[in-house]
Amino acid sequence: MEGIGEKYINLSQHMSQETEIKQEAQEQYFEEPEISTPIKEEFPGCYNFQFSLCNQDSSKHWVYSQALRKVFINMEETLPLRFKWEPADDGLFVRTAMVFSLDQYASDPVRRCHNHMAMNNINNHDIDPRIIKHVVRCLDHSSMYEERNEHLSVLTPLRTPQIGSHYVLMNFKFLCKNSCPSGMNRRPTELIFTLEDSKRRVLGRRRLSVRVCSCPKRDKKKEEMELEEESPLSAKKRKLCVPVPKKMTPSCDTHVFNVQLSIVGKENYLAVLKYAYDIMAGQAARTGQFEFFKPYMDDILRKTP
Question: In the Cβ-directed half-sphere of 120, how many Cα atoms lie within 13 Å?
Answer without folding.
Answer: 3
